Amino acid sequence: MKVLFVCTGNTCRSPMAEYYLASKKIPNLEVSSKGIFATGDKANEKSIAVMAEMGIDLSKHISSPLNREDLQSDKIFCMTESQKQTLLYYGAKEDNVYVLGSGIPDPYGQGIDIYKECRDEIISAIDELVKKGEFDCLSVIPLEERHIEKIAELEKVCFSEPWSAEGIYESYKTGTVFFVAEKNEKVLGYAGIKPVLDEGYITNIAVFPEYRKQSVASSILKKIDNFAEERSLSFVSLEVRESNTPAISLYDKFGYKCEGVRKNFYRDPCENAIIMTKRYVSE
């Protein structure tokens, strides 16, 4: 996960946030900071002083201006609402940009006590985010035996005709490839894909309700894309209930197009299935 902190000049607030979060050494977390109007200056001496009290060295920090590539970071934390709006104007995604805490006032030009207050506000806001698991890195990995019971539980939550643990294991042993999305070994969602020659058929894709709208399904679909390319699949296909508008929209975003309908494919309740297919062009 790439996390970016943004302030005005990248000499006070954002480097304090960057170096504090980096000091926590969270696995698979890449932390940086930029300034909207940064000009290559060193960190402010008062920022250096108050962070030194925490055992954190800012003395080698050099401010760096924000660029368009930075807007692709997984999570961007600005110090003010106006900075957030500036980033949105320049193309950052609405669901990737946040204001740190309730906003962090600029301490520039003020006394050391104000810098200490600023530091403490930043630390408090970051500690709260860490406590909530906001920086835990999502990973999508191949199925392991420890996942099977949890996936069977997820099936019961999501489907009227769920697969049993035994059914999942049997499908796995007969060629279905499963990918599991997890954080800190906690299962968030999963998908199965059955490769047949150069074709791929997604058997199921599901995410626990409490983890939806957190890019879990998107991460799984990206993994399936990688798998399709590695296996040189010509296409990947799936069925989805015709009433499941959010899922259809997500699949469409990933390049899946409607290529047919299976009448009364689903039961409990009875409903048509939309066949959606993503075709891969070989170079």
Give keywords:
283 residues, alpha/beta, seven-stranded mixed sheet, four-stranded parallel sheet, 8 helices, 11 strands, 27% strand
SSE blueprint and pairings:
Elements: E1 2-7, H1 13-22, E2 30-35, H2 45-52, E3 75-78, H3 81-89, E4 97-99, H4 112-131, E5 139-142, H5 148-158, H6 165-173, E6 177-183, E7 186-196, E8 199-207, H7 216-230, E9 235-241, H8 245-253, E10 257-266, E11 271-279
Parallel strand pairs: 1-2, 1-3, 3-4, 8-9
Antiparallel strand pairs: 5-6, 6-7, 7-8, 9-11, 10-11
Helix pairs in contact: 1-4, 2-4
Short description:
This protein is α/β, with parallel strands linked by helices. The chain has helices at 13-22, 45-52, 81-89, 112-131, 148-158, 165-173, 216-230, 245-253, and strands spanning 2-7, 30-35, 75-78, 97-99, 139-142, 177-183, 186-196, 199-207, 235-241, 257-266, 271-279. The protein contains eight helices and eleven strands.
Structure description:
With 283 residues, the protein is α/β, with parallel strands linked by helices. Helix content is 32%, strand content 27%. The chain has helices spanning 13-22, 45-52, 81-89, 112-131, 148-158, 165-173, 216-230, 245-253, and strands at 2-7, 30-35, 75-78, 97-99, 139-142, 177-183, 186-196, 199-207, 235-241, 257-266, 271-279. The strands form two sheets. A seven-stranded mixed beta sheet has the order 5-6-7-8-9-11-10, with helices on both faces. Strands 2-1-3-4 form a four-stranded parallel beta sheet, with helices on both faces. Helix 1 (13-22) crosses helix 4 and helix 2 packs across helix 4 (112-131). The chain is elongated, with a radius of gyration of 23 Å. The model has no long low-confidence stretch (mean pLDDT 94).
